[in-house]
Design a protein that fits this description.
341 residues; alpha/beta; Rossmann fold; two-stranded antiparallel sheet; 39% helix
């Protein structure tokens, strides 16, 4: 290999590829010099940098300190002393700003059917589901397992849990009953939200049946799931008379939401309260539950959605090819784009 093509040389890339002028002129960061200045401030005055960004969001109480960390102990905290609700920042804040009728979520089903929900409509569904969870005994700090396909109700479920302060644990809809049970047991979740069935690549996936099997496996390991909310999508239906319906445990989520109020008082949460637990894949050992807290995660995902993807709420419709069952889907399908509007 010629010297100029050596590995070291290729790793030291100096070329620049500027975007076309019409794109650059409308970007949040219009040139490399602006990026360098922003980066320089972020490393020289990180607390000032992130405090300025945090001012864009809604707070019940502002922070005492922006950040504190001890890398030896592995203790890192953001916006201590502050109080907020992430769902309010993802939904209510935009409605209050006059954008209630703007598109919030666009969904294309496996059969090609498309549906768009406005911020007003998403907020209503989230409030109904949050009230349904509360009516079934779910309170701040309770862990809720979510095992659903890629449908709008999955996003509603995340935001409903965030609204009432119940950390959610989303399990990828392609995982087996064993994998689902493993995660239920580890986070000691006694409530699950699922779907009768989902569509993937033209075939029906019996999520409720898989969920039932997981609940039995979890019970054998000492963790009882007392409540299962079942959304109707593509299976044999829900409610009394549906296959394997467990009376007293299973709840018709659609009917239950329809009976709830459209206003759900958001829980006031500390910045370092848990927002969600998401498990590693387990491909190199036991799946590990990674806990993300409220403020730092919300601000990071909203900020990176804005600057890395250059999203503009007045201009862009953002598509992310990830699955909400993984961290990219949490961050850049649900929380990041919605938090920035």
């Amino acid at each position: 290999m010629a010297e100029r093509e050596s590995i070291e040389n290729l790793l030291d890339e100096q070329r620049r590829f500027p975007p076309p002028e019409p794109i650059a002129s409308e970007a949040h960061i219009t040139d490399f010099e602006q990026y360098q200045a922003m980066w320089k401030r972020s490393v020289e005055d990180p607390d000032g940098f992130w405090a300025e960004i945090a001012e864009e969001f809604e707070w019940y109480r502002k922070w005492d300190t922006v950040s504190s960390w001890d890398f030896v102990k592995g203790e890192i905290k953001w916006f201590e002393g502050a109080q907020l609700n992430v769902s309010v920042n993802c939904l209510d804040r935009h409605v209050a700003a006059g954008r209630g009728d703007s598109p919030a979520i666009s969904f294309e089903a496996d059969d090609g059917e498309s549906t768009t929900y406005t911020f007003n409509e998403v907020l209503e569904q989230v409030c109904r589901l949050g009230n349904l969870l509360r009516a079934n005994g779910v309170a701040k700090g309770d862990r809720v397992t979510i095992y659903m396909p890629m449908i709008p109700e999955l996003a509603f479920a995340l935001l409903a849990c965030a609204r009432i302060g119940a950390p959610h644990s989303v399990v990828f809809g392609g995982f087996s009953a064993d994998s689902l049970a493993q995660r239920i047991v580890d986070c000691t979740s006694d409530v699950m939200i699922t779907t009768d069935a989902g569509m993937r690549g033209g075939r029906t996936v019996p999520l409720k049946s898989i969920g039932d099997a997981a609940v039995k496996l979890a019970a054998a390991k000492g963790v009882e799931v007392r409540c299962v909310l079942v959304n109707h999508r593509a299976g044999d239906g829900v409610g009394v008379g549906a296959p394997d319906w467990v009376e007293g445990r299973d709840i018709d989520m659609d009917a239950g939401m329809a009976s709830q109020e459209t206003v759900c008082e958001p829980e006031v949460l500390d910045a370092e309260d848990p927002l969600f637990i998401l498990y590693t894949s387990g491909s190199t050992g036991q799946p590990k539950g990674v806990l993300h807290t409220q403020a730092g995660y919300m601000i990071w995902t909203a900020t990176t959605a804005k600057y890395v993807f250059d999203l503009d709420p007045e201009r862009d419709l953002h598509f992310c090819t990830a699955d909400i069952g993984w961290i990219t889907g949490h961050s850049y399908i649900v929380y990041g784009p919605l938090a920035m509007g």
